[in-house]
Design goal:
With about 240 residues, this protein is mainly alpha-helical. The chain has one domain (about 40-240): Lysozyme. The chain has helices spanning about 10-25, 35, 45-55, 60-70, 70-85, 85-95, 100-110, 120-130, 135-150, 175-180, 190-210, 210-220, 220-240. The chain is globular and about 60 Å long.
Length: about 240
């Protein structure tokens, strides 16, 4: 089984890590060899670098952050999204006690209301992290969760889509979050994403004691939190004006 990608690591190191991964799952009664031998499997070259570059982007203040995430474009889509999913947003607010505008803020910031699904495969992403030694234990835990989610929902793992960090769906959940808070089985059903965001925030609102702190559990960046709340405020304006 040849899995080495030039420039990623030595072939021996890669093979050693892959063998350790196979042995780990064998002990748990799971055979991941078919996935590793699938033609769609491939290590993501220098995945560690992708994480480091994201951290190194210099952002000076919330306005700079908004430019980076194309806030104005997202803001322009908020009203249409609220109209399209009015019933689902009302239900989510009623069932989970989370303001519909905050749900809109999360989905808007995370995927621009469903525009982005991710151009990577989560299995490839987490195996790559494991092989490179980037957050190795965490990556292994996410692989376990990913296999569980795919098995429970009868999904072809190699057909699944994610960010390079392995986050999936319009809500951008990692596998651990999918198994606990995703409502439904279709990752790209928008109502399911709406309810899932509400479910997640509701849990962490109870844990942290506030809605604002629950948003930080989604992403521990204060600028992310400010962007979500700013987009939620824009959505509130549209909801109030009836635009």
């Amino acid at each position: 089984m040849l899995i080495f990608i030039s420039g990623l690591a030595s072939a021996n190191d890669s093979d050693k890590e892959i063998k350790a991964l196979i042995e780990h799952f064998n002990k748990k009664g799971k055979d991941i060899k078919p996935l590793l031998e699938d033609s769609r499997f491939g290590l993501i070259e220098n995945i560690t670098g992708k994480f480091k570059r994201a951290v190194e982007i210099k952002i000076e203040g919330i306005e700079d952050y908004k430019k980076v995430i194309n806030f104005d474009r997202k803001k322009g889509k908020a009203a249409e999204f609220m109209r399209t999913y009015a019933a689902e947003l009302e239900k989510a607010e009623s069932d989970y006690g989370i303001p519909k505008t905050v749900i809109v803020g999360i989905i808007g910031v995370e995927s621009e209301f469903g525009k982005y699904r991710g151009s990577y495969n989560p299995f490839n992403a987490y195996v790559s992290m494991y092989v490179e030694g980037y957050r190795k234990k965490w990556a292994l835990a996410q692989l376990e969760e990913l296999l569980e989610f795919a098995e429970d929902h009868k999904l072809d793992i190699m057909e699944m889509e994610s960010s390079y960090a392995g986050a999936m769906s319009y809500a951008q959940f990692i596998p651990w979050s999918l198994n606990r808070w995703f409502v439904g089985g279709d990752l790209y059903d928008m109502p399911s994403n709406i309810y899932s965001v509400a479910n997640y925030l509701s849990h962490y609102k109870e844990v942290t004691g506030s809605l604002e702190k629950s948003i930080l559990r989604y992403n521990p960046s204060s600028m992310y939190q400010q962007a979500v709340l700013a987009l939620a405020q824009e959505a509130e304006v549209h909801a109030t004006s009836g635009e």
